[in-house]
Amino acid sequence: MGEASTQKHISIKVQTKAAKKRKEILAIIGFMTPALIIYGVYVIYSIFMTFYYSLFDWSGIDNNFVFQGLENYITLFQDEVFWESLGNNSLLVGASLLTQLPLGLIMALLLFSPIKGIRFFRSVFFMPFLMSTVAIGILFIFIYDGNFGLLNALLEMIGLESLQQAWIGKESTAIWAVIATVCWQFAPFYMILFRAAIVGIPEELYEAASIDGATAWHRFKNITLPLLMPIIVTSAILSIIGSLKYFDLIYVMTMGGPNNSTELMATYMYKQTFTNFNMGYGSSVSFSMFIIAFIITLFILIGERKRRGVE
Amino acid sequence: MIKRIKQMPLYVLAIVLLLFTGLPFFIMVNTSFKSQLNFMTSPWSLPESFSFSNYGLLLEIDFFRYFMNSLIVSVLSVIIVIVIGAMASYPLARLKFKLNTPLFLLFMVGMMIPIHTTLIPIYLLTINLGLYDTIWALIGPYVAFALPIAVVIFTQFMKEIPKELEESAKIDGCGHIRLFWNILFPLLTPAVATVAIYNFIHIWNEFIFALVLTNSSDVATLPLGLREFYGEFTINVPAIMAALTLGSLPLLLVYFVAQEKIVKGLAAGSVKG
Amino acid sequence: MKFRLLLVFLLSLVVIVGCNPTNTDVSTGGENEPENESGNDTETESGSESNESSEPEEDVTLTLWHIEDGPSGEAIEAAVDRFEEKNPGVTVEVSQQENDPYKSKLVVAMGGGNPPDVFSSWGGGWLEQFVNAGQVKEITNDIDQDIYVEAALSASTYGEKVYGAPIGMAVVPVFYNKEIFADLGIEEPETFDDLTAIVETLKENDIIPFTLANQSKWTGSFYLMYLAERMGGPDLFSEAYNRTGRGFDDEAYIEAGHKLQELVEMEAFPEGVNGMNYDTGQSRQLLYSGKAGMQVMGNWLVNNVRDEMPEFEEKLGFFLFPAIEGGQGAKNHIVGGVSPVFSVSESSEHQDLATELVKELASLETSTQMANTAGDISAIKGVEYEDPYVQEISDVLESSEAMQTYYDQTLPPELAQVHLDTTQALIGLSMTPEEAMAKVEEKAKELLD
Questions:
Q1: Residue C62 has what pLDDT?
Q2: Do A227 and A295 belong to one domain?
Q3: Among the four A13, B134, C73, C337, which has the fewest Cβ within 10 Å?
């Protein structure tokens, strides 16, 4: 509890201080209990069970649990497809950070610029995130098609026939085609997140700056960006975690093919669990994904704390 | 005049982004007015003749029941998430205690677990709670798995609210409950709007929990109902696009209302400031 | 102090959390009884008493899960109606799902100990997983085996024991566009050389020889199955699968892989086959528009045509995949499969009633309706076909000397997956036949030996 503020009120008796503390504890418990109960019952329990299953050789459909300790994890370490999918996930993480966040920020800033019909722009910019993944998946299968696809038609229009190809039919391009679609889908989410944060920046700060004759770029660099930093860090964490367990579009668009070139950890886990009847092994993939995401998040949070400390 | 020219690049950028973000939505709507044959022979053209027959097909599959089920589940889940999520964020963001960081992390880990291997435990849990094949079977997991992102975003935004506001309220003798509801929660409006949009869309489109935790068509949500357009070997693409177009309208509405609210919140905030 | 309180709180949370896993163990770990208990809660509250006697005195609800849609779905509903009429007081709750979601849903329900009383499958390796898990009731003596086509029933027979009753069958010919063949003066091929000559002719006329949507994988598997059979003869697969002779890395398989890659190198398939999806219609689009000349596909293609572009049906012809000179296979050895197959859950509380339901589903009446409205070939003897096209396909099946069931349905799922993946890689030219077949054999050794 804030030491500084309590010291300020030295005159207040010790008794009231204790009462205040008790009140605060009650507040903490009261405010957190509903969330913790429902969260514990479903999520914490699920995480625990995922780990539990990962210790068994279990098909998922019978009562034949064979305990085998960490053997699933040892197999996993030697599993080429898992490493390949981890690699693909890393590409997705990188691409998401480098495109979703900047694109989201640009779109968010654009919404504050004095262009006409801003409501219309605001609605259309958000549409990728609003479309169902099934719709996006089916449409982009057709857009990327090698024979009558829209993308190839557009390339022809601007005279780049040489680039025409079957985008998701080739191992070399499939992963990029899918990643581009995922980034396209999620950029608008960061747009609204950043917009909500920019709204919270006090107008006076900008007013003071424009009196000083700062250019738009300076205002952005010296006021907007620093104040947005905490939300950018949060966005980065959301984006990384989201990319690490991404599943939906791959499932609709490529099912991990061709030849595992678009396999992600989550689609691989799904195949092991539901197609190959390896619930135990699938759970170990799940739990590994969990651990990876956890470690990365921890690093970011520690880094962020240090950064704040330096400032 | 000079101002106009200066704004030119902005307009160009905005229009490029407009095409980039809006084209697939346009294609979806466009396809929904086509016959299957028309789509098969020329997928990108405008419809040969505008036909609402795909929308007529929706009547055959009980579209409105699925729609209402989805609406009830989504609205209830989102409201619960926002209320209990914001409540949980209050101690995490504004009160200092020893378990602050561990509890925050505890909420964060919920985002990291892939849901597919949790299906069997949650299925069992749902049956044991006697909720199987009811809409409550869905609301539980939806709320629980939406909580992490809500708590993370709320905590983040609540931390940014200036401490002075709170101090003055405390001097006025505000308790924690009044402080939270009357002062902090209204200031969270932009974050609430963001969290509401995010989770509403996710829950609206959620498929796998709905597949596993419900069985009868009385409680089926829209994503399940849409599967009726999937044949064993074929998908009726235009019909699905019609359903998805109609299904995305509430999302558009939620988004629009939420964004207007942010603008209003902004105006109110500046008056106060 | 606050610390202690929080600790207490967290501990109680742990208790909540900790309790549930034990519950789980009870219901999955214990044999049948706890499973039935959880089944009671949701399925049949009133019917639980009538356990001992198969004649229900009170109302009983049976659950039926299947994947048939359209006219076949209606045939299932009709069978359910007949069953309900014959068994007053019994209600059947029917749930129809699409292919992939159905598989996940059934796995979770089986794992959670609350499966439907009756469920559908394709027989083969997938059903065998559930049989091995002790989840499927044996119905060898409950059904009249003589009414079924032998090849169909064998898909759900494991070591003399029958676990499912089939309704329909399908075969895989080579479909072609008669108009294109006539315009270019092409005859139906007798040998593989004829076929490659056709490929050349079509290429010269800017027509894609075979349309194929191989993101779906099972589509490309047809080509490999045929080439392997034509090279190694009808016993090649069963020897490899039953581990009684040649393996999956046999010379015949490798040669089949080379032949497949030759076709790819001749550009017999469209650009980017591995990214095209069968369900969304990308491959059929090429066929309908006359951009492609042929497609190796199950006879359900005709249903797709009737739905999507009825006027194309008159242009649609078919022939059987030709023999390869020097190979051991023959032109009238066909690839085919069985679907749907209905089985009873071992943990069903009303096994006898459920078996009756299966018999009603897999009956002459159902299969006749399916044949005449959905164009399926019957797995039950004695159906009179009204549709000349289905009759024709059915004749092909009857006159065939051997039927190879689809690998991906026959093999254990994990091995099937390797077969599908490597075949896709072969078609993508990212694996040599030797590598691909060695991979399949390696997995086969792990799972089957």
A1: 95
A2: yes
A3: A13
For residue A235, give its domain range: 75-310
- Least confident window among A88-97, A258-267, B167-176, C103-112: B167-176
- Our CA-based measurement puts residue A171 at a distance from the nearest CA of chain B, in whole angstroms, of 24
A288 contact partners, CB below 8 Å, separation of at least 6: A73, A76, A82, A265
Domain B60-272 sits in CATH at 1.10.3720.10
Distances in Å between the alpha carbon of A16 and those of A12, A188, B22, C228? 7, 49, 60, 87
- C82 by Cβ neighbours in 10 Å (0-12 / 13-18 / 19+) ranks as middle
- Determine, yes or no, domain membership for A66: no
Low-confidence ranges of chain C (pLDDT < 70): 1-57
In this prediction, residue A118 carries a pLDDT of: 86
| Cβ atoms < 10 Å from Cβ of A75 | 15
- Among candidates C229, C222, C174, C119, which has minimal Cα distance to C396? C174
Q: Is residue A262 part of a domain?
A: yes
- The token duo for C89 is 């007081």
Residue A16 clears pLDDT 90, i.e. is over it: no
Select the highest-mean-pLDDT range: A17-31, A106-120, C134-148: C134-148
- By C-alpha distance, the chain A residue nearest B84 is A35
A289 contacts B112 by C-beta, under 8 angstroms: yes
Nearest residue of C to residue B238 by CA position?
C280
Instruction: Name the residue facing B114 among A45, A131, A245 (closest C-beta).
Output: A245
| C3 touches B: beta carbon within 8 Å | yes
Give the relative orientation of helices B189-205 and B63-94 as an angle to the nearest 10 degrees.
140
Q: State which amino acid sits at residue C381.
A: K
The answer to whether residue A67 sits within a structural domain is no
CA distance B121 to chain C (A): 7
C281 and B207 within 8 Å at the Cβ level: the answer is no
Quote the tokens at residue B3.
């101002």
What's the pLDDT at C2?
Answer: 44
Provide DSSP, B58-111. HHHTTHHHHHHHHHHHHHHHHHHHHHHHHHHHHHHHH---TTHHHHHHHHHHTT
* pLDDT of B4: 65
Decide if A143 and B248 are in contact by the 8 Å CB cutoff: no
**CA separation for the pair A47, B108 (Å, rounded):** 12
pLDDT of residue A7: 52
Specify the pLDDT at position B266.
57
Q: What is the dihedral of CA A218, A219, A222, A227, to 10 degrees?
A: -150
Q: Which of A27, A88, B230, B269 is nearest to C6 (CA)?
A: A27
In 3D space, the residue among C252, C432, C249, C404 whose CA is nearest the CA of residue C324 turns out to be: C252
**Which pTM does this prediction carry?**
0.88
Same domain, A179 and A39: no
| Residue closest to B104 by CA, chosen among B113, B95, B117, B116 | B95
C68 touching B, CB under 8 A?
yes
Question: What's the rounded Cα separation, in Å, for the pair B181 and B163?
Answer: 16
Q: Where are the beta strands (DSSP E) in chain A?
A: 56-57, 66-67
Structural domains in chain C, sorted by start: 59-167+339-390 (3.40.190.10), 171-336+411-448 (3.40.190.10)
C101 in B contact zone (CB under 8 Å): yes
d(CA A10, nearest CA chain B) in Å: 15
Task: List chain B domain ranges.
Answer: 60-272
Q: What angle do CA A34, A37, A41 make, to 5 degrees?
A: 150
pLDDT of residue A207: 80
Inside any domain, residue A291: yes
Total number of domains in chain A: 2
